[in-house]
Structure formats: structure tokens, C-alpha cells
Sequence to fold (494 residues):
Amino acid sequence: MNIVDRSMDEFFIYWITIFILLFALLYRLPSVIKKLWEAYIMSNIPFHEFPGVKLPPGTMGYPLIGETLQFFKKGGEFYKEKVETYGFIYKTHLLGRPTIRVIGADNVKKILLSENVLVTHNWPTSARLLLGTGSISQSSGHVHKIRRKNMMHAFRLDEMDKMVPVMQDVIRSNLEEWKSKRDIYTYPQSKLMAFTVSACTLVGSDMTSLINSGMHDVFKQILDNIFSIPLDIPGFGFRKGMNAKRQLLSMLESILSDVDKRPYTPILKAHYESSSKLGMESIEEINEGVIDLLFAGHETITSVSTNCVMFLGKNKSVVEKLRDELRENNLLKHKGEEFTPLDLQTINNLKYLHCVMKEVLRLCPPAGGGFRKALQSFELGGYLIPKDWSIIVSIRETQHLSPLFKHSEMFDPDRWNDDKLDKGAERFHYLPFGMGARGCVGKTYAQIVIKVFIIELVRTCDWTLKNENIQMRYIPVPVASDYLPATFYDPALN
Ligand code: HEM
Fold:
């Protein structure tokens, strides 16, 4: 071999080696970056205070964004894959924060009963800024206690009994419209209905002025961006949400200032009273509380009513059983007769209706989880939960994976006829409204709206689903991803 051939070979080997090294580096680069990011996060954790206790299993994704992009891309599947891979307590990095998701009755119980001791509520930044400090859900400490106490008092049974006819009117006229349109997408129609029910019963506005004001569309912009990357720059969802919030606040200011024309509802009164007790003067902050109520009572009810149409549409025998119960209680319309008006006592006597509502909320809880932050490092289920990390208490997987519910994936309202289940044995296995110091203040109100909706649905409508092979999406709330197209018509009742 002459000198020229040898140097050609060396040159060739040199470049091949460089190429292989570069390729290996690039190939390995993502996992090297992830490892460095994880090491950086771990560097602040006081492992020495908890000898032998490890962090939960899981992955932290890429610097800053963590696993947020996968989360938005996969939706509910993200959580499903994680629980299958890592079990009931795992770590991840979401919406800019190291996060631990907690599943299972015992784990969830420990977190929910430790508010202000081990944990405090902590919604993602986008939701915190969009809902604002004037809201119950985003307030804390003394302010939260006063707001919550006042609101719980306002949602008492005698006040809600007075709301039933309003709920019934709004729901019935919406269902009439669904039938007159015949072919509808249930989700957007339910959204309008739920918004109108909340606005009429909680805020006290009349329907026509609300719909004409376009408030519902503005509100939708806030809801669509409630869980978004909190960057207030053009093109980002969060910017759209913030703009919509400003618009909504000025709409509320003009609607709510006219007390003479439209006296306050007990709910608004309670909200204003707690605001003045707290010395809160900013109209903006006060009206943030109103947005919070509309938010809490709107998207949740939208999800449940859409899912009632879905589950009942797929299970006609359940519709027939509901109708039997209504018939036994003289609540089914007979030809030529008017519908019997509803009241709280009549509604609460309907046992099967209660089972149906519970089952819809078991399979599709509108709030999939609750957001908390660790106030101190502590141990949970053998793992270390570091101070300042976010904790998401899972409602959905806790209910779906609980050993208490046999054939958990099945829609079976009769499972709630089992005395053992309905006498509190399911506490923390079943918690669609959360529990403890941050449990839902609108729980009883929401249950009444759902029951009135189911009653009116089965006694005034028949419907067929256009697509029974339904794929669900879970963010921000669980609904059919095709928005549940259905055909509505008058029922043939006897
Ligand atoms: C089916 C309907 C509803 C469901 C499933 C539901 C569920 C929940 C859940 C799970 C929580 C607790 C979240 C946590 O632990 O962090 C909660 C809190 C809350 N809910 Fe509801 N909710 C519903 C309807 C309503 C309605 C209609 C209102 C008001 C009109 C309302 C007002 C609130 C408020 C203000 C909070 C915050 C409580 C606090 O932080 O102290 N909810 N809800």
C-alpha cells in the first residue's frame, strides 16, 4: 500500500468515526437533556430528611416544558398510559411545574383531608389568572373561609327549592328547541343550556338579554383557554382568554350594576356580602367571583348533560326504567295534560333517578382532578412528595380503578341500589364533587340541575345517537370528541 492510499484510508476512517460519534450524540441527545433536567430538578429535594424514601416513578420530559406538549396532544390517554406504566402515584412535569398525580381512595383521602397542613389548593397559572383572586376557588386562608361559608349558606335547600321552576323552564325550552331543530350536536347545545341555567339561577339575568349580548361566546373563549401555556403574547390561547375575560368583566359591570331592575339572587347577594365583609372594593375583583361561579357551574353541567344524553341514548332500558319511576310518581305526561311542575321533595323521592345521576358522574366526572401544592415535604404511599411540587388528586382514575365497582367500565345505575355502596362506603372511592375543605360548594345545586335535566329529557324527548362508536375527550371536561350528534323528537309515551 503506498502512502497516498494509506492517508486516504485514514482520512476515510477519521470522518466515519466523526460521523458515527455525531450520530450517536444526536441520537442520545434528547435522553441526555432529559437526564440533566431531571438531575437539576432533584438537586433541590431534601432526600436526607427522608432516608430510604424515593420519589415516585415517572418522567419529567424536557427543560421547562416538561411533558406539557404530550399532555395536550394525548389528553386523557396521557394519564391512562402513565397509570398503566407507573401505578397509583407517579411524577411528571406539567404546565411549568414538577407534578405528582395521586390515585386511589387512601392516597386521595390523605391529600384532601390535609388542606392547609400538608397541602394547599394550587390551580395552574393560566386558570389562576383567568379566574382571578376574587373567586372562591382561587382564594385561600381567611378570605376563602369567609367566601365559602357565605356561599354554602346561600345554597341552602329552601333557596334551591325556589330555583327549581326556573331551572325547569330553561331546560324545557332548550329541549323544545333541540326537538324543533331535530338534528343537533348535543355538546354545544348543552353548553348554551347550562350557561343559561347558571345565568338565570345564579346571576338572575333573563335569557334573551344574555343570549343577545353574546356573553356566552365570550365566556367560551375563557373556558377554551383555562388550561393553557400562560404566555400573554399574540397568537397564544392564554392571550385570547385574557382578552375575553376583560370583555366579560365589562359586560358583567353593565348588567350587574342595575340592581333596581333586577334584584340580586341569593347567590350573588352572598358573594357581595362576603366581598364587603372582606373590605373588597374593586368591582373587577368582585365580578371575578361571578365569573368563577359561572365557570364552575357551566362547563361541569354541560359535560354531565351531554353524557346523560350519551349514556341514556345507548341504554334505552334505563330510559324505560326512569319513565316507569316517573309514571309511578305521576310525573309522566298523559295526553292532553300539562306536565307536573317539579319541586325539591318530589325530585329527591326518585331513587332510580338518583342512581342514574351517580352512575353518569362515576364514569364521567366533569372535574377529572383537584390541584394542590405541597406545603412541606412528606411521605405518601411509600414515596416522597417534595415541598412546593404540584399535586393533582385524580378523581377520574380513582373512580374508574376502585375495587369497589365491579365491571367498572359498564354503565350500570343499579350498582347504586346496593345498600352498602350508597351508605358512605364509597367515600373517597367516589368523589365527583371532591371532599374536604375544598369540596364543591355547588354540589346540591348541581345535583338538582342534573336531575331536572334527566326528568325533562326522558319525559319530553326521544332521541337517537348518530354515532354509537364514541371516542371521548377529557380536557377540559369529558365529552364525546365528535360533540355527540343526535336526532331529537317527541316521545311516543302512553
Ligand atoms: C356536576 C357539576 C359539578 C361538579 C362535578 C363539580 C365538581 C367540583 C369539584 C371536584 C370541586 C373540588 C376541586 C378541588 O378539590 O380542587 C369543586 C369545587 C368547586 N365548585 Fe363545583 N362542581 C360542579 C358544579 C358546580 C356548580 C354548579 C357550582 C356553583 C354554582 C360549583 C362551584 C364550585 C366552587 C366555587 C368550587 C371551589 C370550592 C373551594 O375552593 O372551596 N360547582 N367542584
Remarks:
- The mean pLDDT is 88.
